[in-house]
Specification:
- The protein contains 19 helices and 14 strands.
- By secondary structure, it is an alpha/beta fold.
- It has two domains: 4-236, Rossmann fold, CATH 3.40.50.300; 247-433, Rossmann fold, CATH 3.40.50.
- Helix 3 (51-61) packs parallel to helix 4 and helix 4 (76-90) crosses helix 5 (112-125).
- The longest helix has 15 residues, at 76-90.
- The two termini are 45 Å apart.
- The structure holds one DNA strand of 7 nucleotides.
- Residues 1-11, 410-421 have a biased composition (Basic and acidic residues).
Length: 500
DNA sequence: AAAAAAT
């Protein structure tokens, strides 16, 4: 969410929706939220809505099913949680017995950390109300969660696996859920999550309001999503898959063996106080983190093979500034809100272009500026082409001049206790002394993708027209549709039973 | 070529 002065900087590239009840102004006070919520919003210093909030809140209040697309870091969580909380406060469910405590709103997220964060935000908005907000996810003891659920919660935030555990253990009652939100909806609907998601949805009433939010929506996912929505409305304030304009995106062509060196050099040259370095595999993540540690950087690894305790600690330490470099897999790609993060590195080019958008969305949040560096090897040409097409921006590959010296050892000399964290890492002396013998490297390959307007390909400036959301075509079953979408086989039913 | 999410 943006504060007043920031709001104008990220003016909406509005895609008008015909039935759009645009609020009178961008002030939170103009949409008539319950005073209890307005107070909570004010507590956090917010007065002005972001574009996605201004556009989505009236429709959510009006009870519409929504597919919401807006760039990363523009306040999607508040866009759905404030109006839902408002409705829950206004409409006390008279039929519900006070002895039972049915969940009324369910929010599902793709990672534990994101579920945690979303729950924390919603708790903030609900702070002055009596609504109870809980979060459940795997990797930690189930008992405290069970206890909390049994005492009753109105808003439940969850990751899919643990939620199913609780459902099947009858720890929570979901047959009176009125509102469902899929955060990072395109991820929740992808092949890996879909079976769990479908099972969860099968426990919910058909009659409900469903909200889908993400910064990225492929046309295929949009179509699939329709089958879970009733008379849905597409709310978008930027072309889907758009990257934030306040993030400087650089692409350097480097040799695989030079990548580590390149990160160290750029950290120094750009005087970056902190950065997330994304890698594609858990093993690579652990190795790179260890290597940075040997170079004297304060480093943590964050990936799915770490214990939940370690994961949370790594994230907290990074947020607190006691760690400079967080090496992470795509577990950290989506949704995480790390205030004032100056830079994101793609040590590996992500396999999915969508993940590129989400990764770099960790910087430049709430209108701040950010730097996104992607290291590109010759094997990555196709992936870069995919990204170019997705974000509809021309990608200029640049050479990166590396010193011939070995990766800087001067980092080692920097003691952990000295050197305030705002200071840039110490200069690598060896690197400074030796003249660069390597000539400035040429990009390894030609431009991977040039738009061809005569072939109907979009030009960089012109955003693709918004895709209208139409009704579900009833003759295609969602499962089949997914199989068709991905050209892949769905998990065989036997595979599930085999695991016992 | 992978990661994530239950144990």
């Amino acid at each position: 969410m943006l504060k007043t002065e920031d709001a104008e900087r990220s003016a909406p590239h509005a895609t008008e929706t015909p039935t759009d009840p645009t609020p009178a102004s961008l002030e939170f006070s103009s949409v008539g939220l319950d005073p209890v919520l307005q107070r909570a919003v004010a507590d956090q210093g917010y007065t002005t809505m972001t574009p996605i909030q201004a556009k989505a809140i009236p429709h959510v209040l009006a009870g519409r099913d929504i597919m919401g697309a807006a760039q990363t870091g523009t306040g999607k969580t508040a866009a759905f949680s404030l109006p839902l909380l408002h409705k829950m406060l206004r409409h006390e469910n008279a039929s519900m017995s006070p002895a039972r405590h049915p969940v009324r709103a369910l929010v599902i997220a793709p990672t534990r950390e994101l579920a945690d964060q979303v729950a924390a935000n919603i708790k903030g908005y609900a702070a002055h109300s009596k609504l109870r907000v809980a979060v459940v996810y795997g990797g930690i003891d189930m008992k405290p969660q069970t206890l909390e659920l049994k005492q009753g919660v109105e808003v439940l935030v969850a990751t899919p696996g643990r939620l199913l555990d609780h459902i099947e253990a009858k720890n929570c009652v979901l047959n009176q859920v009125e509102y469902v939100v899929l955060d990072e909806a395109d991820r929740m609907l992808d092949i890996g999550f879909l079976p769990d998601l479908q099972r969860i949805l099968s426990y919910l009433p058909k009659q409900r309001q469903t909200l889908l939010f993400s910064a990225t929506f492929s046309p295929e996912i949009k179509r699939l999503a329709e089958s879970y929505l009733q008379n849905p409305l597409l709310v978008e304030v930027a072309r889907p898959n758009a990257t934030a304009t306040n993030v400087e995106q650089r692409f350097y062509s480097v040799a695989t063996d030079d990548k580590r060196h390149a990160v160290l050099k750029l950290l120094k040259d750009r005087e970056l106080s902190q950065a997330i370095v994304f890698v594609n595999s858990k093993l690579g993540c652990a190795r790179l983190a260890r290597s940075f540690e040997r170079d004297g950087l304060r480093t943590n690894a964050l990936h799915g093979d770490k214990s939940q305790d370690e994961r949370l600690k790594a994230l907290d330490a990074f947020k607190a500034g006691s760690v400079d470099v967080l090496v992470a897999t795509d577990v950290a790609a989506r949704g995480l809100d790390i205030a004032d993060l100056p830079a994101v590195f793609n040590f590996d080019v992500p396999f999915n272009a969508e993940d590129y958008v989400h990764r770099i969305g960790r910087t430049g949040r709430a209108g701040a500026s950010g730097l996104a560096v992607t290291l590109v090897t010759r094997e990555d040409a196709r992936l870069i082409g995919d990204i170019e097409k997705l974000i509809k921006k021309k990608i200029e590959l640049e050479p990166l001049e590396l010193d011939d010296a070995p990766p800087p050892r001067a980092y080692r000399e920097r003691s952990r206790s000295e050197a305030p964290r705002s200071e840039a890492p110490a200069a690598p002396r060896a690197a400074e002394r030796s003249a660069p013998r390597r000539p400035p490297g040429d990009p390894f390959f030609d431009r991977p993708y040039e738009p061809n307007p005569s072939a109907g390909e979009p030009s960089w400036e012109k955003a693709a027209p918004p895709v209208p959301v139409r009704g579900l075509s009833p003759n295609i079953k969602p499962k089949k549709r997914v199989a068709a979408l991905f050209g892949a086989k769905l998990p065989e039913p036997q595979q599930e039973t085999e695991t016992n």
